[in-house]
């Protein structure tokens, strides 16, 4: 209702860290970054952790396996050639097809060997030594991605069901009631004053999002809607493509600041603060800001900025809300596609996985 919207707006401090023009500009940039969040980041979250966990042991092992496959294919080609050389007959359609497929596979594997040769530098030895740690990092990345998806889904569902002012206040909710793993973890750490641990977790989450976004850009390329403008690859990317990729990443980073209010709403708004209501300690809410008590809650600067943005211009709040549902939908679609075409995707993505590791 309009009265509820006005009531909640009155709880938010009037002084914002930024003027209205800057807030509007940040909102426009975040909306553009939401497009990258829903595509590049979502695609990278589904694929990149598994790419790290299933990465090959070393360039030398891969090269030996590739050489063996090339030898087998060349033997197959020699067998076909000798079969028709002795008889002088024309190669049958099926044998000609097998011959062409074997030749194409040899060309692909030889190009792969060239890339493996390029990876034989001093850093490669170091990467081979820490390879088990790479797989462990991939597992941690997968756990982080699952927690992010659960957090976004939990907050989005709660906003859809419990926001009393809906689109008029950007689907704001006064208090989180659904379980949110990241918010619970960060709030508990901040409440118990575990020094700097919450900053480290937030930092790891942001790094995970950046890496997944980069991996998504590498596999999908720099695109305009469904049109691929530039392909990103190690030592072979167009300068214009790199520039556009950097712009996309900058916009996604602005969107990450907005998404913190969805990933960890309680922590982003109030940190680990508690308030006293009727003699009982309770978590801070928007309504508790106006209470007259010695332990009055104070909102963080980033939450004040975002709440001013989505309450003064509800379009931004609605865009973020719909964008998060699209993000969850694409996560589901990408996951189903990966499961259905698992074997095909692994075969097709071998080169992409090498490029992913080379770029990152």
Question: What descriptors fit this protein?
Answer:
360 residues, mainly alpha, two-stranded antiparallel ribbon, disordered C terminus
Query: Over all CA atoms, what is the radius of gyration?
Result: 26 Å
Spatial strand arrangement across the major sheet: 1-2
- Report helical residue fraction: over 70%
Number of strands: 4
Structural class: mainly alpha
State the major sheet: 2 strands, antiparallel
How large is the count of helical segments? 14
N-end to C-end Cα span = 48 Å
Beta-strand percentage range: under 5%
* Overall morphology: elongated
Question: In words, what does this structure look like?
Answer:
- The structure is a single chain.
- Helix content is 72%, strand content 4%.
- It is mainly alpha-helical.
- A two-stranded antiparallel ribbon has the order 1-2. Strands 3-4 form a two-stranded antiparallel sheet.
- Helix 2 (20-53) packs across helix 6 (131-162), helix 2 runs parallel beside helix 12 (314-340) and helix 8 (197-220) crosses helix 9.
- The chain is elongated and about 100 Å long.
């Amino acid at each position: 209702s309009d009265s509820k919207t006005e009531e909640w707006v009155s709880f938010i401090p009037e002084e914002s860290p930024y003027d209205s023009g800057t807030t509007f500009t940040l909102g426009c940039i975040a909306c553009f970054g939401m497009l990258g969040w829903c595509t590049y980041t979502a695609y990278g979250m589904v694929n990149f952790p598994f790419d790290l966990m299933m990465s090959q042991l070393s360039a030398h092992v891969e090269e030996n396996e590739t050489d063996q496959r090339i030898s087998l294919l060349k033997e197959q080609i020699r067998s076909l050639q000798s079969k028709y050389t002795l008889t002088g007959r024309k190669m049958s359609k099926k044998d000609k097809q097998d011959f062409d497929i074997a030749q194409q596979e040899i060309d692909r594997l030889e190009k792969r060997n060239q890339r493996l040769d390029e990876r034989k530098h001093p850093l490669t030895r170091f990467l081979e030594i820490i390879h088990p740690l790479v797989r462990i990092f991939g597992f941690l990345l997968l756990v982080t991605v699952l927690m992010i998806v659960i957090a976004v889904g939990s907050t989005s569902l709660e906003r859809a069901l419990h926001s009393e002012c809906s689109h008029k206040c950007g689907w704001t909710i006064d208090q989180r009631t659904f379980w949110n793993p990241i918010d619970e973890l960060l709030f508990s750490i901040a409440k118990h004053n575990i020094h700097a641990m919450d900053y480290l977790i937030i930092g790891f989450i942001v790094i995970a999002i950046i890496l997944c976004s980069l991996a998504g850009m590498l596999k999908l390329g720099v695109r305009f809607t469904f049109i691929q403008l530039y392909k990103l690859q190690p030592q072979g990317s167009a300068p214009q493509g790199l520039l556009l990729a950097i712009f996309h990443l900058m916009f996604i980073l602005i969107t990450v600041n907005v998404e913190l209010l969805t990933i960890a709403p309680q922590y982003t708004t109030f940190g680990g603060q508690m308030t006293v209501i009727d003699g009982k300690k309770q978590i801070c809410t928007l309504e508790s800001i106006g209470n007259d008590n010695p332990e009055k809650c104070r909102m963080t600067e980033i939450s004040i900025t975002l709440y001013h943005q989505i309450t003064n211009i509800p379009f931004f709040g609605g865009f973020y809300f719909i964008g998060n549902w699209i993000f969850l939908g694409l996560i589901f679609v990408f996951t189903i596609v990966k499961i259905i075409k698992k074997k095909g995707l692994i075969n097709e993505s071998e080169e992409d996985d090498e490029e992913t590791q080379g770029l990152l």
